[in-house]
Amino acid sequence: MCLLSALMAPAVGAAADSSAPEPGMIGVRLLEVPVNRADDPRARIYIVDHVQPGATVHRKIEVSNTTADQAAVSVYEAAARIIDGTFAGAPDRTADDLTTWTAVDHPSFPLGAGEAQPVTVTITVPKDAPEGERLGVVWAEVRSAAGSVTAVNRVGIRIYLSVGPGGEPASGMHIETLIAGRSADSLPVVTARVRNTGGRALDIGGQLTLSGGPGGLSGGPFAATPSTTLGVGETGDVTVTLDPEMPAGPWDAHMALKSGLLTESADATITFPDAASTAAEPVGVGDPPGLLWPAAIAGFALLVLMVLLWAWKRRSQRADSLQPGRGPEGSGTGGLASGVGQSR
Prior knowledge:
The chain is mainly beta.
């Protein structure tokens, strides 16, 4: 059997998409997209859904073989988690509650060269399932033996399943800072520090545009690769690596991020550090949403205090002006007191 190089990575990566595999690979893709998620790019490549306890989810996937040999394929579900901004499938057939809800109708089959096999994935959520989002993966696996060593190669489709009554939790993210720095090999990089402020995991990709550079230079958009996956409440980095000849700046940077239908952007003026350096001070792009209310309350309290001080001052001035012999300028002839005296 030829080497199935596309399956070597243990984590679910770029091979878990909805496009046909390249020649010489075992591939897997999603064939069905829910009508209510037809516009969501993530739902076209991953199993993404929000359901109530007791619901059943069906998705059809396709496993294909573009190698020159027949392959013995196993299809199974396994746990997954997010590690340092990466969606990672668990080793082997690691189980969790989501795997006990998930089943496939074709767990194993021979797949000839150039053939494809549809597989239905069914997720049956118990009626007493606790609220929350579960992560998992459906793997298509091929094993090959070389002497005493067995190579396990697999590719898969991610599962993001949110469970709970009512509507789907809102997704949200906030760009906290933009950082212009250097990679370990001195390449200029721009890093967006991002916080997941919503109720669903995010797969964040982005583009950087630079303008207003030295001599009026501009450039981009430059893509951030790979994407960054963040769980609920997590903070991570989305990084764009640039050409080594990129001038230091300063630049007007615009970072536009996207996860599914969710978008967020930020602007900052950045300057890349010297090539000998690998980092630079972060440039703030605004307070996170959690700090806006305290700031607004403090500002309102300051405004109320200023109004009270102004009113007290006006009252004091008015009281002084009503005293006999005192005018607004401290004289004994002007103002209301003087007028009262003349009417007598």
